[in-house]
Design the sequence.
């Protein structure tokens, strides 16, 4: 049965309407995702930027005999209620280490209590009216002001929000990722090279490939359970250490690196392999001298993205105990440590209002590092990739 021109035109109009509808739905979904992303960053910036500023108060310290036992005795009674307790605890320690301070006075800027910090930032606080009057007087005298919060970057965790920082978590993150890289990169690359260049195509290799693809998709918390069962309970690796955390994340990162490396190896044209074989190279020489160097940009890109993914993981590290309270920087790979995602998780569970901005500030730092790592991967890919 032949269709008339009107029927064909109606079908074409219907198809065009469907295509246009799909286009607008896709654009709407993209716009909605963009709106959510903007709202997320706006919320994080509004909550996290105040964490990079901290109220400091200028005080006069009187190193008297009472201050040797109780640091608060060295400060004016009205001002001492507004100063961080971490500084008061340091006064007797300083006097023991420096006996010549006894009988002297000193004027310096010190950290204010977190409630004072929240008050001057316009957030909810628990200060009394007399304390607010005192802090307002100090502000008018120029003895209390917001300054850049160096403590956030130079100190470890603390039970007092004003003294909490990310230094120990940042160092623990670096140490953990070094262990992850040292294990996952060579093992992942060598596995991919064997499967792609040397292994025969049989039932065994097919099963291995299926399992690698499945491992890349399973929940990360299962890797934490595996690390707990094997590394801690069976091999006795120290709990909460960068060593066990890095080994656990290496298990999780291996499938990503293997898949990325195999993709990079497949992108090298077979003509290069054939040319190398034609001049008498062995299979290993072909892979080592020709295929691997050409595939290395793609391998590096996949490895960096895998490490960035591992850096943002929290669940497997919680399972192996890397949520410990770590006020000081760890000195070795076997000492207890924590990482940035776990530190943020810990701060998010604290009841004090001041920890809210610490949590958001830590998220901003983590996001900045992840964006940097992903940007580095993109730059390396653009700079070194070769089109055939």
Sequence:
């Amino acid at each position: 049965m032949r269709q008339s021109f009107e029927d064909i035109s109606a079908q074409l109009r219907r198809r065009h309407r469907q295509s246009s509808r799909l286009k607008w739905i896709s654009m709407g979904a993209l716009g909605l995702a963009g709106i959510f992303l903007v709202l997320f960053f706006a919320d994080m910036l509004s909550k996290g930027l105040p964490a990079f500023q901290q109220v400091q108060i200028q005080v006069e310290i009187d190193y008297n005999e009472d201050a040797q036992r109780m640091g608060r005795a060295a400060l004016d009674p009205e001002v001492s209620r507004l100063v961080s307790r971490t500084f008061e605890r340091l006064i007797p320690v300083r006097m023991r280490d420096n006996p010549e301070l006894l009988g002297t006075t000193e004027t310096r800027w010190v950290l204010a209590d977190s409630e004072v910090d929240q008050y001057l930032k316009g957030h909810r606080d628990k200060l009394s009216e007399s304390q607010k009057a005192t802090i307002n007087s100090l502000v008018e005298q120029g003895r209390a002001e917001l300054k850049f919060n160096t403590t956030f970057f130079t100190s470890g965790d603390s039970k007092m929000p004003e003294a909490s920082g990310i230094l120990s978590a940042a160092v623990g993150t670096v140490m953990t990722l070094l262990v992850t890289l040292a294990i996952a990169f060579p093992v992942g690359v060598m596995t991919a090279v064997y499967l792609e260049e040397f292994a025969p195509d049989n039932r065994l290799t097919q099963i291995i490939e299926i399992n690698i693809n499945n491992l890349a998709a399973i929940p990360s918390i299962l890797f934490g359970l595996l690390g707990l069962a094997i590394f801690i309970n069976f091999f006795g690796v120290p709990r909460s250490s960068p060593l066990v955390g890095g080994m656990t994340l290496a298990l999780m990162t291996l499938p990503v690196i293997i898949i990325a490396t195999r993709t990079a190896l497949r992108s090298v044209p077979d003509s290069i392999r054939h040319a190398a074989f034609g001049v008498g190279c062995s299979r290993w020489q072909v892979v080592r001298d020709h295929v691997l160097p050409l595939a290395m940009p793609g391998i590096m890109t996949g490895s960096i993205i895998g490490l960035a993914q591992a850096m943002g993981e929290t669940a497997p590290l919680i399972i192996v105990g890397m949520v410990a309270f770590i006020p000081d920087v760890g000195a070795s790979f076997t000492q207890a440590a924590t990482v940035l995602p776990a530190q943020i998780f810990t701060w998010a569970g604290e009841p004090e209002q001041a920890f809210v901005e610490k949590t958001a500030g830590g998220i901003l730092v983590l996001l900045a590092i992840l964006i940097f790592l992903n940007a580095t991967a993109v730059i390396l890919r653009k700079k070194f990739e070769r089109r055939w």
Observations:
- DSSP finds 15 helices and three strands in the chain.
- The beta strands are 53-62, 105-111, 144-148.
- The chain has a mean pLDDT of 88.
